[in-house]
Sequence to fold (275 residues):
Amino acid sequence: MTYKKFLIVASKNNPAAKNITTNLSQFKKNPLVSGMANEPSFDFYLTEDEVLYNGNLDMNKINQYDFVIFPCTHRSEKGTKSLSVHVPGNWRTADLGGEMGKVCPTSALFQKHMFEILNEVAKQYEITDYEITLEVTHHGPLINKPCVFIEIGSSEEQWRDRKAGFVIAKTIADSINTFEPSPYREIAIGIGGPHYCPNFNKIQEVSNVALSHIIPTYASPITEEMIKEAITKTEEDVDFAVIDWKAFNSEERQRIIGILEKNYIAWKKTSDIDK
Fold:
């Protein structure tokens, strides 16, 4: 599938979002020229309030676009400096927007493409003190369009870091301009592991596998509904699930495998993926 019309949804009062969108404005093409050339393009939708909550968003506007990108702050208790990518949605409680047990649609191929480019741009501009990472699917909002969050973490200093803002902005622009769906990628959902997905990061960056939703160990017990939701909300046909093997005890692993096999879903261990 191809996406032509992208929407950048950001809060004017979110420091990282403001930093990123200010940098991103320099990459915006003339809409007339890109339209005539049938090239992908993006528009800005800037809100007064945080974008995590559906009540703050104009869904009619969002629904006019093919794909939505949310630049935003990332917060962590450890205060790790990070540039991260993830899909919004909630496996259990919905404490930060969205709905309990519901996740947003996303493209495994686009998310992989964006993560690869983020790693490339970070190396190109030598932003070596930031950790480049996926995050598991979490928080709101809940929308009907395929989407992804791309974030700067984790404190005021990093949110306002102009170089970090530029790297994220260039990543967004390059991802939009160069995305071409590959029919040769294997499509997967991820199951298990911690919030920052160390075992899935390498898979997403260097293997042939494109990951969409990731269900973390802390969402356990992993349910049939969660797995079906992750697969249903992946734009591409999912080939298999990847299990972070050491993230579960043997009893929980067998229970998850039982759910997968009952639903005729193939599975692999993270260690089975060529990296």
User: Anything to note?
Assistant: The beta strands are 5-11, 41-47, 67-75, 82-86, 131-134, 147-154, 186-191, 209-215, 240-243, 267-269. The chain has two domains: 5-178, 186-272.
